[in-house]
Amino acid sequence: QVHLVESGGGLVQAGGSLRLSCAASGRTFNMYDMGWYRQAPGKEREFVARITTSNFTAYADSVKGRFTITRDNAKNTVYLQMNSLKPEDTGFYYCNFWPSNRAYWGQGTQVTVSS
Description:
The protein has strands at 3-7, 10-13, 18-25, 34-39, 46-51, 57-59, 67-72, 77-82, 91-97, 109-114. It is mainly β. It has a six-stranded mixed β-sheet with strand order 2-10-9-4-5-6, with no helix packed on it. Strands 1-3-8-7 form a four-stranded antiparallel β-sheet, with no helix packed on it. The model has no long low-confidence stretch (mean pLDDT 94).
């Protein structure tokens, strides 16, 4: 059984940075494309970024140029470096496979960006 655990969220001022981590256990995830997703208060969960097994990356337009997704297969971990954070980036951030699989949503990690 795969278990995905997100960490690294917190409270940051606008313009600041955070690095989120997603540790996978139970299955070697280097065979799978991975993604980061987020859910803002009162809104549906949305795609943020994805990375393929060959390290091709893609981003939502709203984060392009500010966020960077990477993976470390030796550590079974995927990261999301978030720079130039804006208040509209506030929400819970989740990692999952890409495309997402509803069986693997974790608890997420909360990001709050103050203005």
